[in-house]
Design a protein that fits this description.
Helix content is 28%, strand content 22%. It has 558 residues and is α+β, with helices and mostly antiparallel strands. Strands 14, 18, 22, 23, 24, 25, 26 and 27 form an 8-stranded mixed beta sheet that branches. The chain is elongated. The chain starts with a helix and ends with a strand.
């Protein structure tokens, strides 16, 4: 507490030197925290309050002193600052107490254990299960909330003697219980693993990189060819993610977070994080766990796809692409990176029996469609165009009888035969929503063509699997030789050649089997077989000798 004489002396100094008070405040704020601590017992060396808690305290102080919305420089010019009862002084004390000492020479840096660090799981405190202000202990790898004196991280630092912590949101490293911030370049590798970063130049060079990376345990891995952890019957997610990682424009889009900064969907940001971790060249491990992405999938799909329940990768691929498109599209136009890569167009001709047609027509089912109808005709023709993200191909039924060796013959069919479904002439009969005869013709080819073979059929009792093998080319799939394609526009070349980049395979019985995927590495044009954590190089000839379920083809741009 100041005496009356000291107050009068201060006022005299202000009258003699108008800028003396401002200079005094400036000098005080520029002093080191240790000096401030010795000068004023209220000013501690460092604040143990969390960043969010400090912000709330600061806002409350502003409200109490009526300073909300005022300029801070105006506070310094007020002559009543030196008064003990003035709320300005209390507010400045809180603000000054938030100053944290920054040091480079921390004696506990040698206790950091990179072997136990795993940032793939959800950022929740291991004690309070809160996701606010979570810190990771760099000694044992566990997550704790806050760094204040009553926080779980502070308690852990005293009980276990673990002193180095990183804020999972701001990436700042602190020493507890001392409370100072550690600024050391040796911790940058941990920050890169926590939040991988790519420049646009690095993204462009990814497909040219042939260099292997080394994990902490000494194992080698290829960036982009890392295994994904099967948490519990989530192989259908793993093969879908590995396939989409081969789609270059999609991968490049999600490697740079600025591209989807405007999007508020957790699913989009989790997919982007997973993409960056898969392609990161400085990982501590040779595999990635898609745990956070799976949690976002469960929430977005309302547990239609969840951990512990096997699902169909075709259904998951369709749901994921449509959901990502819906979250990424802007209000001005209906486009997104998903549609730019995968969207094509079909012309559908539907023949419907005349009976009961006009009653349904009144309900407005056929908007924007060309309908050729005659009241006396037996068949009504509908012609309309519809977009598609993937094409479903029907397999011929397998033989019912066994051969001489008492084994079922596994038939084979060329891919070109089942592609005739889209030549505009082959009739496909459908029963639902009502009986009709359909003809399909491709009017626009996408840059990346997704095909899936309808291997599984469900009835009221069980699921059947069609074991028919499909023979397909790995390179140079020429579509114009088998299905009619529209003539290209002026000054444009018809691009109808495709190369296979991903092939998803199902092994085993329906409902009990597992999925694996063959993917191509573009830098060396080598093929790799992936099944969860197992990644191995394989021959291109082996890709076609499997029960293929879904394929992604890339359009040749030459």
């Amino acid at each position: 507490m100041k005496t009356k004489r000291e107050d009068n002396n201060d006022e005299d100094e202000v009258h003699e030197f108008p800028d003396a008070k401002r200079q005094k405040k400036f000098d005080d704020s520029s002093l080191p925290p240790a000096f401030l601590a010795s000068e004023n017992a209220l000013h501690t060396l460092a604040s143990y309050d969390d960043d969010d808690d400090d912000y709330e305290k600061e806002e409350k102080m502003k409200e109490a002193s009526g300073l909300r919305g005022k300029d801070e420089e105006g506070e310094d010019d007020d002559d009543d600052d030196e008064d003990d009862n003035d709320p300005h002084q209390e507010f400045n004390q809180v603000k000054r107490s938030r100053m944290v000492e920054v040091r480079r020479d921390c004696p506990y840096l040698d206790t950091v254990n990179r072997q136990v660090l795993d940032f793939d799981f959800e950022k929740f405190c291991s004690v309070s299960l809160s996701n606010l202000n979570v810190y990771a202990c760099l000694v044992c790898g566990k997550y704790y909330q806050g760094r204040g004196q009553k926080s779980h991280a502070y308690t852990h630092s005293l009980e276990a003697g673990h002193h180095v912590y990183i804020n999972l949101r701001t990436e700042k490293v602190y020493c507890l219980p001392d409370g100072y911030e550690i600024n050391d370049p040796s911790l940058d590798d941990i920050r890169h693993v926590l939040n991988p970063r790519f420049t646009r130049e690095q993204v462009e060079q990814l497909d040219k990189n042939k260099q292997w990376s080394r994990a902490l345990d000494g194992s080698d891995y290829l960036p982009g060819m890392v295994g994904l952890n099967n948490i519990k019957e989530t192989d259908f997610v793993n093969v879908t993610i590995q396939s989409l990682m081969r789609v270059t424009p999609l991968r490049n889009f999600f490697l740079i977070p600025e591209n989807y900064r405007h999007c508020k969907s957790p699913l989009v940001h989790r997919f982007g994080e997973l993409t960056r971790k898969i392609w990161h060249a400085r990982n501590f491990k040779g595999q990635v766990s898609p745990h956070e992405f799976l949690q976002a999938v469960m929430k977005a799909s309302k547990k239609r796809f969840r951990i512990g329940a096997q699902s169909d990768p075709v259904e998951f691929m369709s749901w994921l692409l449509n959901t990502l498109h819906g979250d990424l599209r802007t209000s001005k136009k209906n486009g997104s990176i998903i549609y730019d890569c995968f969207q094509g167009e079909l012309e559908v001709v539907k023949e419907i029996p005349n009976k009961g047609f006009f009653e349904k027509k009144e309900n407005g089912d056929f908007q924007n469609k060309v309908i050729t109808a005659d009241e006396h005709a037996d068949v009504i023709l509908e012609t309309y165009r519809m977009p598609f993200l993937m094409l479903g191909l029907d397999l011929p039924p397998p033989p019912l009888f066994q051969d001489v060796m008492e084994k079922n013959i596994i038939p084979q069919v060329p891919l070109f035969n089942i592609l005739k479904k889209f030549d505009g002439e082959l009739v496909t009969e459908v029963v639902r929503p009502r009986i009709a005869r359909m003809r399909y013709r491709v009017t626009r080819l996408p840059q990346y063509l997704i095909l899936h073979m309808r291997r599984f059929t469900k009835n009221n009792f069980f699921i059947e699997k069609n074991p028919t093998l499909v023979n397909f080319p790995v390179k140079n799939l020429e579509l114009k030789d088998y299905i009619p394609l529209p003539a290209p526009k002026e000054n444009e070349k018809l691009r109808s050649k495709y190369d296979l980049i991903a092939n998803i395979v199902h092994d085993g019985k329906p409902g009990e089997g597992f999925y694996r995927v063959f993917v191509q590495r573009k830098s060396e044009e080598l093929w790799y077989e992936m099944q969860d954590l197992h990644v191995s190089e394989t021959l291109p000839q082996m890709v076609a000798l499997s029960e293929t379920y879904m394929q992604i083809y890339e359009q040749q741009q030459q």
